[in-house]
Amino acid sequence: MDLNLSTSYAAVPDDLDGDGDLDIAVGNANAPNRIFYNDGQGVFYETGSFGYISSLRSLTLADIDNDGDIDILIPCRGAPNQIAFNSGSGEFPDADIRTFGTGIDKTIDVAVVDWDGDDHLDLVLTNRVNDPNVILLNDRKGNFSDKQILHDSERLNSRAVAIADMNGDKNLDIIIGNIGDQNQIYFGNGSGGIIEVREFGNTDGQTYDVITGDVDNDGDILIVGNMMGSHHTKQKNTVYIDRGDGNEFDAIPLGPGKAPNYAGSPTYGVSVADFNQDSFLDIAVANSGNFNRLYMNEAIP
């Protein structure tokens, strides 16, 4: 699909040009970011780039300005984070790029959520190397200046963020994945406040990615992919099964015995989907220096 050599860290599908099929935004480190448009038959062609060149590690796609098309958020790890706004036809003019954050945030990942209940998307930034994680509230015009620092995050080296209702109270919560510490859940109250913070996982965890899904079809949201990073310590990829209230989890390692996710093949990405269409979510992991793995979910009678 791409004949150009570059270091790609993210590939995110969405309908960027509004024609009803999925296109792909590819984020590259220190090289132009690229869009591959779907011709409707599963053939992809490249037409231009988006955003300024940066040392990004992820991309997030969402309609930030509520105009009906998909925009692209680019966390830039030490440089001004960017929003590339969609013109409506799948083009992302440089003139429409807007920055967010302090300009020197060490942002690795960003999630979008209507955190304060005003029907406009806000941002949650995870930052590395003792740079605090923050919530940036949308002023309803696509600007993000009102900042809320997540409690006790100044000491953390965070790499991943996910959004889900973990305790079943109909309010969305924030899950943060960290390196060298436990992971956190910040329980939201639906109007911009945090009512409680819970920690889970190893005290020396190496979490590079976090994703949620109901893998056992019991109605509870589960955390999948914590301990995703076995980059520095011998930790296996893990599924955390919620016991029902978001406060306690059963940790289930992925794969039997000494799985290939031990040191020497760190996992940097994880995704869940029903790959074999049996109504159960399966888990795909992306490894560095080893085969990528697909774990098929088997129903237990």
Question: What this model shows, in words?
Answer:
With 301 residues, the chain is an all-beta fold. The chain has a domain of 155 residues: Methylamine Dehydrogenase, Chain H, CATH 2.130.10. It is 0% helix and 42% strand. A four-stranded antiparallel sheet has the order 1-2-3-4, with no helix packed on it.
List the SSEs and their pairings.
Layout: E1 7-14, E2 23-29, E3 33-38, E4 44-50, E5 60-62, E6 71-74, E7 81-84, E8 98-100, E9 107-113, E10 122-127, E11 134-138, E12 144-149, E13 158-164, E14 173-178, E15 183-188, E16 194-200, E17 211-213, E18 222-226, E19 238-242, E20 249-253, E21 267-273, E22 282-287, E23 293-295
Antiparallel strand pairs: 1-2, 2-3, 3-4, 5-6, 6-7, 7-8, 9-10, 10-11, 11-12, 13-14, 14-15, 15-16, 17-18, 18-19, 19-20, 21-22, 22-23
The gist of it:
By secondary structure, the chain is an all-beta fold.
CATH fold category name of the domain at 1-155: Methylamine Dehydrogenase, Chain H
Helix/strand order: EEEEEEEEEEEEEEEEEEEEEEE
Radius of gyration: 19 Å
CATH superfamily of the domain at 1-155: YVTN repeat-like/Quinoprotein amine dehydrogenase
* Total strand segments: 23
The proportion of residues forming helix, as a percent range, comes to under 10%
Mean pLDDT, rounded to whole units?
A: 86
Strand residue percentage = 35-45%
The level-1 CATH class of the domain at 1-155: Mainly Beta
